[in-house]
Amino acid sequence: xxxxxxxxxxxxxxxxxxxxxxxxxxxxxxxxxxxxxxxxxxxxxxxxxxxxxxxxxxxxxxxxxxxxxxxxxxxxxxxxxxxxxxxxxxxxxxxxxxxxxxxxxxxxxxxxxxxxxxxxxxxxxxxxxxxx
Length: 132
Description:
Oligomer: single chain
Structural class: alpha+beta
Helix content: 25-40%
Number of helices: 5
Number of domains: 1
Radius of gyration: 14 Å
Distance between the termini: 20 Å
């Protein structure tokens, strides 16, 4: 599903978003399409578990360029465990894991423990490079 900048910002505040987008800077040997699990949920990221398991840290500075004018949205990448800029001009939302209630957050942590935490570096690379 195609999404606008404001639409993506809203989804990121209330859930984990699985999405794909075309890389702004292609990497040799990698797919031009990047896949990501990301969020901007403050409740999740700033929790003790978020700071430890997801290695979240508040931003230290804002981009030196007008990200919004380039169609970019900043999000916390759960697998890369860092901030990433998402080009909404080529962004497609694959799925959304809601984080609206405490039960949603507990469900996410079960998913994290059962699936994400068990991913090897190779599995993470294949996921991010949009290869199954």
